DNA sequence: TAGCTCAGTTGGTTAGAGCAGCTGACTCTT
DNA sequence: AAGAGTCAGCTGCTCTAACCAACTGAGCTA
């Protein structure tokens, strides 16, 4: 009766006191008294809130209002995808398609509307990508930065965070599953093409560039991942 | 040292045993033995996993593998939005823009590609919406169903769930904040227009219809929500 | 046979004790 | 007097042990 309630009451406490991210929460004993619950129950509620990113706990230091990032969503998405994959579903492909669908839809609104500063930054990122490809280094982080910078032009922090979360979840799962990275040279060329298309203001071409980029990733996926132990749909029921 | 680990080990247990959603997990005493931890620690780990939707706990019955839905994401998004709003940010508007950006991007791929069966279903939903509007009933649920059915044509379960999650979070926050519902008649007309556009296969018109629909919601938002109690940014620091 | 009761299982809650990480003030050395 | 080491005190972390509450199913009763 109390547990579900405790979480709500702690959330309410945060809202009522207008606590911003990073602000300190009452200590466990204080919460016990304030909420009239035992230490254990308070801790379980805090653990749940921590899992949702609402609260941040630092051992020996205190409890604080969390960064409210989408990190927990990444966690959940990644696990869901791994679990689905290990049961023979094409969950990783679905995650990739989700990214493709959203990004193709968004990139067309960007075409010709990017501030010059962002375009320059993207140029630098692709340059770095080529440099990394040349010396055989991984370019995952740079790829992430490219996509993040690209959609920054939409001027919606939440939207950017969501896209980054999708990227993170996908990347995490792909590496966990031991997927092969794609050909660095091809990846570089495709990013360059995306950037050129956006700069030129040709929405259709930008969309096509994104689609091709994802098509490449998808191709790599199907050569390694879809080990089909029992791919039959409707395994049960 | 143990706590963060316990969650991982329980997740690993689920993966190793290929447990599907709804499958029973070991009882708390069994987990205590298997993980070599106290009941308390096990419970805290389970609570965190429950918050992430990975596990489902039923009092007096047992613990089960969760539905892996995006419900926790809704929770987190909603709280984040409410918290931001109460601190004077336009977080609710950002959430709406996120939906608009994604849906406008997606609806164009649907134009002309919807199976007739889905179109008929959408017809029925708009009919119901008009009937509800006529007798003054709320049409939130029908609106939700409309959007859900619309994007079912994309044949990506994950994508649909994400969009529904966004809808839920937005709707929850808007009602929590006491926002006024929009004019039912206008809403009906706009949904009819979206449907007609998709049926006709005119991608541009479909996009425009979606945009107009969201524009309507946004207008309603700005007349009621942005009560600015202390809208000054940088209230502290 | 239909319904009830009760014992057993499962998770929920409380209590109290001790462990572990961090901070800041105090003390001892240089 | 300045610096480094120590220690007391906060903080959250883990464990044990007991009891409460929800649900199930077997057995009893009508």
Automatic annotation (TrEMBL), chains A, B:
<dbReference type="InterPro" id="IPR036390">
    <property type="entry name" value="WH_DNA-bd_sf"/>
</dbReference>
<dbReference type="InterPro" id="IPR008920">
    <property type="entry name" value="TF_FadR/GntR_C"/>
</dbReference>
<keyword id="KW-0805">Transcription regulation</keyword>
<feature type="domain" description="HTH gntR-type">
    <location>
        <begin position="1"/>
        <end position="68"/>
    </location>
</feature>
<dbReference type="Pfam" id="PF00392">
    <property type="entry name" value="GntR"/>
</dbReference>
<dbReference type="InterPro" id="IPR000524">
    <property type="entry name" value="Tscrpt_reg_HTH_GntR"/>
</dbReference>
<keyword id="KW-0238">DNA-binding</keyword>
<dbReference type="InterPro" id="IPR011711">
    <property type="entry name" value="GntR_C"/>
</dbReference>
<dbReference type="InterPro" id="IPR036388">
    <property type="entry name" value="WH-like_DNA-bd_sf"/>
</dbReference>
<keyword id="KW-0804">Transcription</keyword>
<dbReference type="Pfam" id="PF07729">
    <property type="entry name" value="FCD"/>
</dbReference>
<protein>
    <submittedName>
        <fullName>FadR/GntR family transcriptional regulator</fullName>
    </submittedName>
</protein>
